Amino acid sequence: MSDTLVLGIESSCDETSAAVLRGERELLGHVILSQDAHELWGGVVPEIAARAHLSVLDDVVDAALRDAGVRLGDLDALGVTSGPGLIGALLVGVSWAKAAAFALDRPLVGVHHMEAHLFAPGIEDPEADPPFVALLVSGGHTLLLMVEAWGDYRLLGETRDDAAGEAYDKVARLLGLPYPGGPHVERLAGEGDPERLRLPRPMLRRDQAPGDTDYYDFSFSGLKTAVAAAATEAPPADVAAAFQEAAVDVLVAKTLRAVAQTGCPRVLLGGGVASNAGLRAEMRRRLGRAAGDDARLFHASPRLSSDNGAMVARAARFHLLRGDVADPAFSADAALPFPGLRS
Ligand code: KG4
Ligand code: ZN
Q: Which domain does 174 fall in, by range?
């Protein structure tokens, strides 16, 4: 099974992507098409997203297969993101994959989008396998997990309101920057002075203890409100810098709590916000200080950190080898529970 050919399809939000993966990490073909129609609206418009996936998915799959030099009939299995995400967008990928799997008589694997983000760094780095503490930071989710083994996920903390990427996107909008806001806020922050104003670190206090319910949880909506207030008086670059510093401080501090409590010095960063160079650098610095030579930080390149079909293909391969294949009733689920998640 080491050279299994898996096609991975992603259409849960505003990227249409397909990848052909041979074995564990040989990416033969990979195409990611980001929809830019949403920029005008300052956020993803579900109906526009679904229609856009529908109009390009055939071509995206064709291009990935062409790059890989394989035909549909050569595939051993198909994997598709079946949730969570925008239901209309998910259904485009799931319907396509169900029809193709049926026509080709190949197994189909439904993949949880956030579990797929965990599989991305390992495509580029063979050491990025469990055990690790994972911080998953995307536009819709913020999850802190202890991953002892693939398929075994212990939930340590999650956001109680906005996701980390959502906070970046809302701050971008407040500062008049385009959607998706993360990279724009990061760039502007680089031009500002984070010391000129201090923003709150929501849900992060010294007196919290490991048993407390807010020890690992996150909250970003208050930070966004503080940014809105600061933006009326301070220069935008300084506001962006102070926001970036506060958000990164909270994300790193909670991850290091998990490292201390679990004794696991290996950390994996996943999701679109993992592209943030400031977050990576601060995580590396403080993890090194906490764990010394044992410290390991895994993250994918920006292309594989944001939504893509390659991570879906690798996650699908794992489930395929375990026999977790879809039955005929399989469909998309906008609120799909994280498989193997326990508290
Ligand atoms: O994982 P992803 O591509 O899609 C979802 O599953 O949501 O994550 C997208 C999120 C967006 O909120 C975007 O603003 C954020 O990731 N993002 C960043 C950066 N690049 C993307 N946030 C902060 N800094 C970045 N460099
Ligand atoms: Zn994502």
A: 130-302
